[in-house]
């Protein structure tokens, strides 16, 4: 089940009385809770009919008492428990016996109460309490948005600030922030902050441009590496060295930068070979663990290189790594020489 299903149930007035919300996108969890609260709880009586409980500072009796309290001047009451410790790791405030009591209570929650557990850490789906929530209610994962949904979300978020943004700018914004990248830690909260910053910067101007985004949005290391390798491919050694210098000033280590350059050349080499064998971007993506839009971007960059050059670049990256690890050359100088060799 996803957050979309929860909102659909909310619209159709058929919410369950028990939910567990977890996942990487806490921003989406908060947004979903807010929408439920707006529809279910009268603002005038929110203090009486909406109760937040810190899961690290509570016990089972407090949770049950909160659920058994009748709504005041309304039909529904919401009880929200954040980070109850029995969902993950070691517990300090909930014993095994108390957990069993809570599990038994799940089947007896009053029809006037909606109980929401929110977990900001990873959950262990093997735990009995999670399985029983799934039996009596719903377990909902709030994962990162997929490509189609994140485009719509970005467009709506800019519109919230009365700004327009075209698809090509959204694509550039995603590239530069790295939200869709496999190991990215960027969240919707981060993107919302960047959008807010962009909208403040442009002032009364309605349209967001690529130049605005390039100027203000923070660049991920993946995006910087892509630009560095792009500069190598177009033989612009000055720009490549400038990007390297900026990354080092931002605190990235030489070893990590070399690893990322090597990875980029490896992807380009693999994609180039697979394209020669007749593979399409749709087929290449799953084999390399890359999203289709990333494959298309790499295919475009690969036009700057032939297979032999990419093979030599990969070999030189490995030799450079060996030289650094054996102390034969200064780390920064080694990467600068690598760039100079292939950008000349």
TrEMBL record:
<keyword id="KW-0808">Transferase</keyword>
<dbReference type="GO" id="GO:0006261">
    <property type="term" value="P:DNA-templated DNA replication"/>
</dbReference>
<dbReference type="Pfam" id="PF06144">
    <property type="entry name" value="DNA_pol3_delta"/>
</dbReference>
<dbReference type="InterPro" id="IPR008921">
    <property type="entry name" value="DNA_pol3_clamp-load_cplx_C"/>
</dbReference>
<keyword id="KW-0235">DNA replication</keyword>
<dbReference type="GO" id="GO:0009360">
    <property type="term" value="C:DNA polymerase III complex"/>
</dbReference>
<dbReference type="InterPro" id="IPR048466">
    <property type="entry name" value="DNA_pol3_delta-like_C"/>
</dbReference>
<dbReference type="Pfam" id="PF21694">
    <property type="entry name" value="DNA_pol3_delta_C"/>
</dbReference>
<dbReference type="InterPro" id="IPR010372">
    <property type="entry name" value="DNA_pol3_delta_N"/>
</dbReference>
<protein>
    <recommendedName>
        <fullName>DNA polymerase III subunit delta</fullName>
        <ecNumber>2.7.7.7</ecNumber>
    </recommendedName>
</protein>
<feature type="domain" description="DNA polymerase III delta N-terminal">
    <location>
        <begin position="19"/>
        <end position="142"/>
    </location>
</feature>
<dbReference type="InterPro" id="IPR005790">
    <property type="entry name" value="DNA_polIII_delta"/>
</dbReference>
<keyword id="KW-0548">Nucleotidyltransferase</keyword>
<keyword id="KW-0239">DNA-directed DNA polymerase</keyword>
<dbReference type="InterPro" id="IPR027417">
    <property type="entry name" value="P-loop_NTPase"/>
</dbReference>
<comment type="similarity">
    <text>Belongs to the DNA polymerase HolA subunit family.</text>
</comment>
<feature type="domain" description="DNA polymerase III delta subunit-like C-terminal">
    <location>
        <begin position="222"/>
        <end position="342"/>
    </location>
</feature>
<dbReference type="GO" id="GO:0003887">
    <property type="term" value="F:DNA-directed DNA polymerase activity"/>
</dbReference>
<dbReference type="GO" id="GO:0003677">
    <property type="term" value="F:DNA binding"/>
</dbReference>
